[in-house]
Design goal:
Layout lengths: L10 H9 L3 E2 L1 E6 L4 E6 L2 E5 L4 E7 L3 H6 L4 E6 L5 H8 L6 H4 L5 E3 L6 E3 L4 E13 L2 E14 L7 E2 L11
Antiparallel strand pairs: 1-11, 2-3, 2-6, 4-5, 5-10, 6-9, 7-8, 9-10
Amino acid sequence: MTERIAPPGSRPAIADVLTAVASGVTLVTVADGRDDVGTTVSAFCPVSGEPPLVLVSLIAGSYPAELLARVDRFAVTVLAAGQRMLAGRFAASGRPGARLLLDGVPHRRGTLSAALIPAEGLAALECEAEQRVEAGDHLLVIARVLDVPYAAETGQPLIRFRGAYPALGRP
């Protein structure tokens, strides 16, 4: 028997259920001409293969969401299991700019987006926003993939599940 942790329809129950959805962790970076900004995003998904489209969901009102509301090009790095510390740096509130957060981490600047792209992830994508949708307390950005600067042939993904980054079990 499953025990309810909150009354039906209550916010805590819904929030707990949503954290039970395991998802890959990405890093979204944007260059706005003044600074480099980045944030950890676990609400990322492919939308279409042709044309190649992805979706990124950001907390509305956050600085990264404000930037992506007006800057079209950005990068997404699919983080590898060994990049847990990097994900934590970019998830911290009050974090400094992306250049400081990537200090000591191999990275390069995207040729099409000008965004910082850390190395050693599973893949990196340079994207251009095509559609923005306000959805509740989030901004959904549907973007065309312009380039894939790299894609690793092997490696384990960094996964977020119930507020933590658990290791994947081996089959």
